[in-house]
Structure formats: C-alpha cells, structure tokens
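## retry 2 of 3
previous attempt timed out at serialization; input unchanged, resubmitting
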Amino acid sequence: MRLVFLISVTMVAFASNSVLNRMAVDGGWITPLQFAGIRVLAGAVMLLMLVRLQARAVPMSGWIRAVGATSLAIYMLGFSLAYTTLDAGLGALILFGVVQITMFCATAMGGTAVSARQVSGAAIAFAGLAWVLWPGKAGLAAPAGAVSMALAGVGWAAYSLAGRREPDALAATAANFLLCLPLVAVPLVVLGWETAPGLIGIALAVLSGAVTSGLGYALWYRVLPQIPATSAATVQLSVPVIAILAGAALLAEPLSWRLIVAAGVVLGGIALAIRKPQAV
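## retry succeeded, writing output
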C-alpha cells in the first residue's frame, strides 16, 4: 500500500510539470528554453541543499552518472522545445508512448521475460491513452515537434532505467541535475535570451524544478528498484490523464465524457500490468 501511495505521488508530480510548463509558456511569461534552464537550476539547488544537510556525498563520476545527466538533459530540452509546435495531447501521447516502447524493448533485450499479462495491460492502457489524446481532426504533429518529443521520451526512458541501479536516490538525482545544468545552459547561451522572463514564469519554473522535478525525480529513483521495468513504463501512462484532469480544474480546459471513460481504460490497463499474479 505504501508503494502504491509513493508511485501515485510521483505520477502527480510528473503531471504537475506538464501543467506548470503549459501555464508558464502558453501564458507568455517565459520561453521554453528559459523554463528548462531555470527548472534544472532550481532542482539542482534544492537537491544539493537536502544532500548537504544530511552530510551525504554527491556521486559526480561514473558511467551511470553520465547516462543520468545526459538523458535528463535530452528530456528537459526535448520536452520544452516540443511544446512550441505540438498541442499538449499529442505531445503527451508521443512522449509516454515512446517511453513505454523504449523501456519494454530495453527490458526484453536485457533478457527479462515480459509476460502476456504485462503486454496486454500495456496495450489496453496505451489504447485508452491514444483514444483520448489522438487529434480528431486531420493533420499530424509538426515533424520538428514530434522528433523533439520522441527524443524526450527516449531520454526519460534511459533516465528511468539508469535509476534502477542507484543505491542513493537523493544524492544520485542531485548529481544528475548538477551535471545536467551546463548541458541545458548551452542552448540558452548560444541562442541567447529572446526576452526577459516574467516573474510569474520564473516562479512556475522554480516550482517545477525544485518540487515537482527535483523532489519528484528523487522519489521516482527511490521507488524504481521496487517495481519491474515493464511496470515502470506502463504506470507512467497515467501521467497524461492526470495532467488533463488537472488542466480542466486549473486551466479551464474542456473535460468530456470521452476523457472520463478513456481515463478508466488507461488506469485499468495499468492495474493489469502491475498486478502481481495470485498464487495458486
């Protein structure tokens, strides 16, 4: 029960990042690259403070650190840039669809058996997500946006898989954010600051970085070793559903019966995928 609660809190934190990002960028208070840079900086500061208060070391070397920092940077940049051309629904579908496919493929290639129940649950969850998020009108995403979000999905999948090997979730996340910071800052330095960000945009980016990203990702690294990689991929399909529900409540986005039914399908598929088989 405690594990279910921690996973639920983590998924809400992930969904909050989408809401905060849309609120800040769509409101014109900050550019996507500025949001990504401030988000990473705020997360790094928060995590480093927590690690130092506990007198713990920050592991800054090793191949797993390189993978964690690089994949986090790819996710952060791809996620922010994609939403300049993608609508929120299709962007979320591409992101978490790619995450699921990447993690399932990596797990299978690693020799871990994927059961028919897990495959069925993932298929049901993905079908429900596609039903509610796939655009009803003709025309698909702009190629640049689709590629950016697909790269973000690969980055997040790699970040999640690397997290399963971390013995200290908080310290590892702090190190990843610190090493990710210069990687995210480079595009800002090269492209320059188009306009100065507004105070509201900065506040939303700091909230996203320090709380829903920094602390949320540390919690994610903590629960990852306790669940199979296939389940970790599937459970993240709940994030777009949570984000849309939050968008309806906080941003006055439309909430239809189609969304409610599809949410039930997605969550039902997730439950099937992560449920442990009963002993006979």
